[in-house]
Structure formats: structure tokens, C-alpha cells
Amino acid sequence: MTGVRVAINGFGTIGKRVAKAVQAQPDMIVSGVTKTGPSHGCALANRYGIPLYCTDDSPDRIRSFDGSEYSVSGGLSDLLSVSDVVIDCAPGKVGQKNHHTYLEAGIKHIFQGGEKHELTGISYTSCSNHSQNLGVMGTRVVSCNTTGLARTLVPLREVVGEMRVECTMIRRAADPGDSNKGPVNAIKPVLKVPSHHGPDLMTVAEKIDITSLAVAVPTTIMHVHAIVAYLPSGHGLTTADVLSIWENTPRVISMSGSSDGIPSTAEVMEMARDIGRPWGDLHEIFVWSDGVSLDGNVLRYFQAIHQESDVVPENVDAVRALMDIEQDWRVSVDITDRSIKESFS
Amino acid sequence: MTGVRVAINGFGTIGKRVAKAVQAQPDMIVSGVTKTGPSHGCALANRYGIPLYCTDDSPDRIRSFDGSEYSVSGGLSDLLSVSDVVIDCAPGKVGQKNHHTYLEAGIKHIFQGGEKHELTGISYTSCSNHSQNLGVMGTRVVSCNTTGLARTLVPLREVVGEMRVECTMIRRAADPGDSNKGPVNAIKPVLKVPSHHGPDLMTVAEKIDITSLAVAVPTTIMHVHAIVAYLPSGHGLTTADVLSIWENTPRVISMSGSSDGIPSTAEVMEMARDIGRPWGDLHEIFVWSDGVSLDGNVLRYFQAIHQESDVVPENVDAVRALMDIEQDWRVSVDITDRSIKESFS
Amino acid sequence: MTGVRVAINGFGTIGKRVAKAVQAQPDMIVSGVTKTGPSHGCALANRYGIPLYCTDDSPDRIRSFDGSEYSVSGGLSDLLSVSDVVIDCAPGKVGQKNHHTYLEAGIKHIFQGGEKHELTGISYTSCSNHSQNLGVMGTRVVSCNTTGLARTLVPLREVVGEMRVECTMIRRAADPGDSNKGPVNAIKPVLKVPSHHGPDLMTVAEKIDITSLAVAVPTTIMHVHAIVAYLPSGHGLTTADVLSIWENTPRVISMSGSSDGIPSTAEVMEMARDIGRPWGDLHEIFVWSDGVSLDGNVLRYFQAIHQESDVVPENVDAVRALMDIEQDWRVSVDITDRSIKESFS
Amino acid sequence: MTGVRVAINGFGTIGKRVAKAVQAQPDMIVSGVTKTGPSHGCALANRYGIPLYCTDDSPDRIRSFDGSEYSVSGGLSDLLSVSDVVIDCAPGKVGQKNHHTYLEAGIKHIFQGGEKHELTGISYTSCSNHSQNLGVMGTRVVSCNTTGLARTLVPLREVVGEMRVECTMIRRAADPGDSNKGPVNAIKPVLKVPSHHGPDLMTVAEKIDITSLAVAVPTTIMHVHAIVAYLPSGHGLTTADVLSIWENTPRVISMSGSSDGIPSTAEVMEMARDIGRPWGDLHEIFVWSDGVSLDGNVLRYFQAIHQESDVVPENVDAVRALMDIEQDWRVSVDITDRSIKESFS
């Protein structure tokens, strides 16, 4: 087993998914994952046969695993010393401190969308700016929402050129495995107007001038985006052309609400469970084909985002960009997705 | 007790509220309400001291009340014969048939937003086209959503002139008293794109070119609109000016999510319950003041709509328009709202 | 305006309701309510015409109202000095400290069910132990759940004698005006087994040996109790007899899920809104008549509890007990309920 | 590929899961599955490489697949003619008609818990009455709820003997992939009291006298049972003994809400997703270890039921019973579960 040695710092919702996706790749191995203490989540690392390390280097923390069912191979520094690149899947806000550690260790590093663009000064989305990320020291894979916007808007922009976009994000209030957050029966607008969500796309994609509004609603399974895109006049496209562009775009799925029997995010996720990926994940962005309407220069559509997993394959591609082992994003995406697919069938 | 004799045909969610609001007016009396059969809802008519009639004229239907706790004074025709105007609060789709009945009886009539504009050829919103409705034979009070749009957009248009608007409607899935509808845990887009909701505004308001997208979410209490309005250049307004326009607009309330402690529709409805109207209703459209942002020519804001009640006072004003007893909409609104307020304090 | 001067310390969910209920009584006046600072909730005190005081006596706190829209008449001590009894509606856990203040001030006091029985050593429920509370210095009105259990179980026990009861409580996760709490899509058992909820009944009612289990579910409007009561053999009752006992019990409503069209708590609360009390409250415990089954000695039934309001009239009765102005609980209940009813019709 | 040829009639929520579980077995093959028409669900059969048949034999229905992406090998009769046993996974109520078909075709058959016990006169649960089902012509695998009760109560009864049980079932309102059902914000009691759910256990297990009450709540992921079991006096067990009995019971998982961080069904299902079965299924019944309390003769505990999947392995075992290929239920369970486990790792 050879390949790029990938450390995963943090083994929660995103970290466990990224670990499994990296394990499936032919050109990478997971050198280790970290946990703060000997909790229930460690069992999964054992099941995957991945070496476990402590999230930090303090001897006290490391000793906290003694006498538990789980044994660690050392602290974060030990893990970094046997790795080529680290994917930071720690909860938001820890990034600043971790960034310092990675720079000191001289290791390449990938953050998640919970961190700010300014931390690394460069961000990543497979379909948009893979080539800009080739060989860089550190980057940030953008958030689930930004990834979703890039997947459907960037291929359009490549065809029609500059666009202006308004997006309303209807966001799930809590993840499926989280019983603490609400609201139970309310709609909660994000009162910072416009919201930060949409413009984050501009950190990875040029020529898309986007603004967004956001609300949180009592559901756990997916975000939905209601998108209004103003195409340049003379674009020459029909609604069918737009659907056809997305059909040829990796990691975008388009199905009909009415004829495929998928009227809501409930049925989208059920379709995803049928596909059979671990956790019932949907790496693809889902577009309702019968909800797409191009009227003159104005394109309107809905897309659904599986907030727990759409960024997972992006992290794999980002490793290839940083390690400069695959220059063509489409090739990387193809290897990533095929390897994941083969690993679970 | 004198005044315009108002029949209310249908005594459900809207009918019962309209009845109570009409009862509070100095220039109207409720001549009667209708029920299909001797159900639990009849008790409320009795409590309000309003004569009860059967929804239709068939002797069988009328006789179905015999032996129940509730007695009726006759069928629909009997009610119409002692009334000057009828407010149709029947469930959607019955309108066509009822329209025929009203025309035959030669009685003025007001439908709700569940019916199409084409039924009457004219629609009604207090703040927008009261004067057009003076003396007409029949009209349609627009839906809760359209009423909400009219309340905040029309006063703006009066200041700045022609506008183009995009609205995303995040709709409650079921009313609070309804345990049949879902979804429990999903977001359901309205796949007719654009949706019919926004453009309905153009049946009552000129010079507002509006398009909308809509989703249903698992909450019962309010709709929320995320609105992007493009003001004409040279409008000369600031965000504070916009808030000030709404402060001077009847039936619009603006409060701060952060400093007033109203981050979601849950707290909006709690504030409404504190006001103390029957059913905890909120006749006003609620705008989060700290969610309003005017950036160049683009105005963005969120508003919340109490779907069960915002059209209630509009129906009262519509009576005054049709009966031609008050030509100035602001005067009518003032009488309506003050009378309602006095009736419950 | 004369009568017992009732101070209400805390003006939130319970406090505002108790204030309005006390205001409706012929033999009481609200001497004042307290707020921590000049927040949005103060507006309601103004609307009710009730003097406002600061929750504590520190000059800094009191001064925090200066320059706001709300003016206070002093601190808590000032309020207590012009009152005969204080109803403590502060959030849970503050009770201990407040108890000390009340004892020092020598004022009679009533706590809510969030405090422990041990704080006062005596608890209160109108239908169960009013006479034991006559003239005491301080008491605790039991929680919404315990009040609900007392309402239906005590009148039964009076007929049949000693009972053993198992209750499963399906609890609402958050109040309607609260958008912070979850879960959005889960059932959360109370893992302290048996739970503390049921046995609290034994602080106010003898000869009912009760145990309970509890879960929280994603709804905001009501708790539901699934109750299994073991009547003594030879009880001689039928299911109809049980229903008849509850018909003659104040503050218990029994309706049919099927024939009255009330299949769930959604329709129960809609019925309550029709009654027209402020906030759409339901002071009564709701029993589904077609869900009551007495099979041999085993009685099974469901009841729904409006957690925001069922204890409100109990607080009014408790004032009469402590001030020793009405010895007969049924007379007090009758005055309380009739006065409330008249105040809003 | 040899083995018992298993037809699966109906390929929805249960059918697709049973098909995948049967495919994993060393001694069975899936001879085919049925669909009513060429819908989206057919894709899954293709992906699994399972022959597709039409749900009935009418030439019109069969022809409806012509020209679609999906081709069928014939009608139901054709499928039965190449099968040894059929597992009926049709929606409830179709059972009666299908039963007739199976009897005419002379094929062994297994129904699901949506059908009545009377249809086959015998029911099935692996841990309770496997031996009674050896070689029978037809049986019914009991519902998800009954299966859950059998899993934890039968092993207890084997130790302590006869028991009396009261169970309150807090049921999910809709499955995760269903966006039609409600309620959104209510608790809905099953007003047939006692409910039919608990007593269904007595169709597979002797000496457990059980009664139940049920409510539906707005969640999609699991049912929860609140159970009170009265053990015979002199049972000699401690709470730890009970937990130890369940540890040695197949298809029961016990974890701690507090120390394992699993306070609600949200975290239970997240743990299940970590295990990695298709659809994130949990075949096991989940018991909160810190929610188990044995007090004298009264045992109280909570268990959570994954309604979509707990009966899946039971269907596999039922095939072995009917075909008389494995007499010992524990051996069958071991083969079933090990084969499923190996198939996805």
C-alpha cells in the first residue's frame, strides 16, 4: 500500500467521511486520524483499520486514552511527521491555531469551509479552480453551500460568460445526528443581509457576481437553494440546453419531481440511500429538472445540497492538487468518484 | 344595531375570523354564517350570537341539523335574502358555483385568494386599489401572500415608481390546527417555476413587475418572504428611509431580531399573542428591521406573514368599497383596525 | 379598586398570564410586575396598566431603565412593600435566593413547579389540597404536568379510593415562542428512570402511587400523557362513569377525537383558540373521550396538557388559600374561572 | 449460484432491503422482484442484477414496460414458477388477494406485519417461534414494533417465566422518504385503546400478557417504546442481569445515553449510519442502558426501533424455517447476520 500519506485531523461528521473516501483511492493512504479523547467515535477508526492519534500533543491528553478500549499512536505532531498532507476536519474556529501548527511542521494542509478564505488566501473547488491550487502549500475546500453553487453555476458561466446571481438559501437547522439544535416549529432568517454564503463563491470562481439571503428551517436532511441567474443577453441557450450542460457536469444529478416521484428533499435522500454509499450520502448536487426555467435571460432553478457529504470528494481532489499529482480536474474527479463507487459495490 | 348586513358563507379558518372582525365594526352587522352540517364548529357561531344557516338550500341538508344541538334559520338563499353583501369563505374551487348563486341572487360578493382573479375580473387590497373597487358588484381579496407583498411593496412604489421584484417564498406546510399534512422533515419546492404566487400581486398593483419561487417547509405558524426589489436608479432613499416609509404604513410592523429578541417566526407569533387578538392573530406584516438592506438600487428584506389572518381586515375594507360607504382607503383601514382593537381590550 | 395586592416577580411565559388572570379577579389587584431590564416584554406591562419594578434592588439595575421607553417604580423590595402576597414566576433555580428575600420581607409567597417541594415544604393544586394551604406562609403551585395528573386522577381517587398509576409523558420539546431548542427530528427519552414527573403528584395528593416515564418530541404546543390507572377491585365503575366524573370536574374538558374532529393536539389547540382566551390558552386538561377505556380494574386514557397555561388559574386559587379568603376550593375555582371568562368576552 | 430461489413480490421500502439481505446469503438466491410499472424504483433492481417481473399477469400491465428503460421477464406467475418461496412485500391490504395466488401456485409464502395473523394462522419471529414455523406453507413476519418487543421480552421471559407488560409506543409519523404525511407540529394518539400493537406479540410469544397505548409524533427516523414489565416475584434478577441477558441476545444493542453520547434517536441512527449497512439501517433493537431500571418486580426501559429495517433479517430466517433448511434459530440468525455483515464490508 503506497501513495500520498493523508492525515485527517478531526474525525467527526466530515472527517469520518473524508477518511473513508481517501481510503478508497488508489494513490492515497490514510496515515491516521485524530480524536480528542477515548470516545465512542474511536470505534469507527478501529473498524476502518486507521491508526488513531490524539488531537494534540500534551502528554496528559495522550495519556487519557490509557486504560480505554482505544490506543493511540501519539499526538498530532507524531501523525504529521508520518504524513504528506493533512486535511483539517476540526470544528470551525480551531483553524487559526491549527494553521500555525501545520506551517511549523512544514506540512501541506487543507481546511474546510468553516474557516475563512483569508486563513490560506486561496480556496478550492474541483470544477472551478483546481489548476490554481496545484502545488500550493495550503488551501480551503469551500463549504457545502458554496460547493453546490460552484457545481451548477461554473459550467454555465463557462458557456455563457459573466453572470449575476441571486440565491435564497433554505437551510436545514441541524444535522441528522444532532438532537440539540432547533427550531422545532419556526423559520429563522439570517438577519445579516445579504448573507455571507453566496459571495463565498467568488473566492473560487470569477465572473459570477452573486448575492444571497438565507433562512433556517426545521429539517435535518438537506439545504435547498432557490436560484435566479441573469445570463448575458445573446446567450443562445434553451432550458433543455441548461439541463444538458448539467448532465455533462460531474457531481450534478438532475431528476424530475413529478415523473421520477421526487417532490421533496425526503425523496431525494431516499434515492441517495438507494445508491448505497456509506451513511446514505449524496455527493452530487440535486437539481429538479422540472423546476428549471430559462425565461429570456433569467434562469431560475432549485437545487438540493447534502450538507454532510458534497464536499467529501472535493477534499480528495484537493489532495491531488496540492501534491501536484493530477493537473486535470476532470481526471481527478473521475478517479475519485470511480474509486468511491467501486469501494462500496 | 344597524349597518351593512354581511353574510359570511363558510365558517372555517378565515370565515370565523372575518365574522368576529365584522362584528366589531360600527357600520356593519353579521347577518349570518353558514355551515355544511351540525358539526363542532357551529358552537362558535352560537357563542358569537350569530344566526346560523345551512351552506346550501337542499331540504335534506337543512334537515340534517334537526335534532342536533344547533338550529339553522334556513339555507344559503335565505341568508342572502337578508343580507347586503356576502363574503365567500368557502374552501377553494367552490367559488365558480357560488359565484353563479350570488349573481342570480343579485347580491354583492367578496371572494378569497383561493379563487382566480378571472372569476370576478377584479381583485382587492386595501392599500393598493380600494378606489377601483368602489361600488363594484364582486371582487376577490387576494391571498395572504399577495396581501403581504402589497403591504410593503406598494408604499415603496408610490415613492420610487416602477420596480422589478424577485421573491422567494418559504411557506408553512400546514395550518396550526391541521394534523394531516406534511412533510415532517423535508423541504418541498413548488416545481412550477416561476410560481404563481408573486405575479398575483399584479392583479392589484401596477408598476411592480414581480416573479417568485416557492418552497414548503415543516412549520405551521407563518410564511416568510425573502425579497429582492430593484428600485429605479436615482431613487434617493436610504435603508432608514425605507423603514420610515413602512412605519407610516398601516398593517406593517417592524422590529429588530437582535435588540427586540425576535430572531424567528416563533418569537414573532409570541409577540402577536401578547397583543391579545383572538386566536393570537397578527393582522400586520412583520418586517425584521435589522434584516433590511438597501445597497445601491437593490433592496433586500425578509417579511413574515400570518397566513391565517392578514387578509381578515382587508375583507372588512372590501365591504366598504363594494357598498361605497368609504372612499378613502386610509379612513376605512383606520376604522377597521381601531374597531378591532377596541373590541378585544 | 381594592382587594389582595398581588406582586408578580417575573413577567415571562407564566408571569404575564398570571398577571392577566389576577387582574380579572374581583378580590385581587396586581400591585406590580418585575423585569430584569428595559426589554421588549415591558411593553406588555404598560399595555395592561400594571406598575413595573426592577427584578432586584441594586441601584445600577434600576438605573438601567432610565432613558428607556419604560419607567420603573423601584426595585423588588419596593414592590413587596406595597403587596400582600408575591407570585414568583422567575425562571427555575432562582427560587432559593428569592425565598430568602420573601421570608425577610415577611411576605406570603407562591412558587411555581420549577422549584422543589422542599423549598416550601408544601405544594398546591386547587382540586386536591386547597384546604391544607389555608393561611400558610408560602407554597408551590405544582408543574403543568403534575397539575394535569391531579385534575383527572384526584376526582377518581375520591370515588374509588387508593390507586396505582403508570404514566408515560410525551413532552413538547420547546414552547411555541422559543426557537432555540430542538430536537428537529428525534425522540429523546428522559433516561432517569422512573422520571421525577409523576411522583411529584404525591406532594399534593395522597393515596395515588404513581410512577412515570418521559420522552421529549419535536412539537411545541402540548404535552400528552398516556395513563394506565389500576383501580381497586370492586370499584363498580364503567367507562361512562369515569367520563361522567370528569364532566363534573372543573378544568377538565372531554371531547371525541372522531366525532368532534379532534384527532391530535393540533386540533385541541385550535379548539382552544376558538374559545378566545388571551394567547389562545387552554386552562383545562383535555381528555379524548373515545380514548378512554376501563377494562376490569385497568383504566387507560390519554390527556393533553397546555404547558403554558394550565397552572394559571391555580395560582389565583393559591392566593385565596394563602390569604385565607376562600376556604372552599370549588368556590374559589368558580370565581377564578368565571372572572377570567367574563374578562375576555 | 445455487440455493433456495426467493421471489420478492413488491420492491419498496421493505422489499428492496429484503432483496439485498437475501442476496448476501450463501444458501439463497433472489429469483426476481416485482414492480407495478416502469418507475424509477426499477433502476435499483437493475443495479442489483435481479430479474424484474410485473406485479400482475395482465398483458396490458406487462406491456407497459415496453419502450421503457426497464424490461421485465414476465408477470407474477412467471416469477413464482421459477421460485421456491415468495416474500410478499406488497403494501398492506393486498395480502388477501396475493394469498389466494400463492396458494393456487402451490408456493411457500411469507407476509409482512401489515397483514393480519389470521391470513396465515401463524406468525414468525426468529427468537421466539422459529421451530413452530419449520416446514409450514405460509407465515407472517410480525411488524417492526412486534419484532422489537419480541427481541427484548422473549429472552427475559425465558429466564423469569410469565410476565405482564404495559407498553407506550411513541411512533414516527412518516418514513424518511415520505413527504406526504404529517403532522408537522402535533402529537396524535391512537384512540383505539388499548392499541392493537402490543397484543400482536402474543401471536408469536406465549406467557407475555401485554397491552399497549400508541401516539404518533412528528419525526421520521425511529419508533420508541416506553416499557413497564412486571416480572414474577422471586425472579432474582438485578438491573445488571437484565442488561447481561440482552448482551447475549442477537439483534439487541445496548449503549449509554450519557457516556456514549446517544441521548436521542438522532444519535442512535447516526451510530447506525457509522456501522455502514445499506440505507444506514439498524437491524438491531436499541436499548438505552442507563434508562433500564429494575425496581422490585417492575422493570422499566426504553427501546428504539428502526421501522424500515428491523424485520429484514427476520424475513431471511423465515425462509430457512419454511424451507426447513435450518432448525436452530440461533444458527440461522448467525448465518443471516454474518452474511449481511460480510457483504458490505
Distance between the termini of chain A: 21 Å
DSSP, total strands of chain A: 15
Largest interface: C-D, 44 and 44 residues
Number of domains of chain A: 2
Q: What would the principal axes of the Cα set say about the shape of chain A?
A: globular
How much beta of chain A, percentage-wise?
15-25%
Structural class of chain A: alpha/beta
Rg from Cα of chain A: 20 Å
- Annotation field: number of helices of chain A: 12
From the structure provided, what is the oligomeric state, counting identical versus distinct chains?
homotetramer
CATH topology of the largest domain in chain A: Rossmann fold
**What's the story with the biggest beta sheet of chain A?**
8 strands, mixed
CATH level-four homologous superfamily name of the largest domain in chain A: NAD(P)-binding Rossmann-like Domain
Notes on the structure:
With 345 residues, chain A is an alpha/beta fold. The first copy, chain A, has two domains: 4-142 and 311-344, NAD(P)-binding Rossmann-like Domain (Rossmann fold); 144-305, Dihydrodipicolinate Reductase, domain 2. Helix content of chain A is 32%, strand content 23%. Chain A contains twelve helices and 15 strands. Chain A has helices at residues 13-23, 42-48, 59-63, 76-81, 95-105, 117-120, 126-129, 144-160, 239-247, 265-275, 312-322, 329-344, and strands spanning 4-9, 28-35, 52-54, 85-88, 108-111, 123-124, 138-141, 163-172, 188-189, 208-217, 223-230, 252-255, 285-288, 293-295, 298-305. In chain A, strands 8, 9, 10, 11, 12, 13, 14 and 15 form an eight-stranded mixed β-sheet that branches. A seven-stranded parallel β-sheet of chain A has the order 3-2-1-4-5-7-6, with helices on both faces. In chain A, strand 6, helix 7 and strand 7 form a beta-alpha-beta unit. In chain A, helix 1 crosses helix 11 (312-322) and helix 11 crosses helix 12. Chain C binds chain D through residues 166, 168, 170, 172, 183, 185-189, 191, 193-194, 211, 213, 215-222, 224, 226, 228, 257-258, 263-267, 288, 290-293, 295, 298, 300-302, 304, and chain D through 166, 168, 170, 172, 183, 185-189, 191, 193-194, 211, 213, 215-222, 224, 226, 228, 257-258, 263-267, 288, 290-293, 295, 298, 300-302, 304.
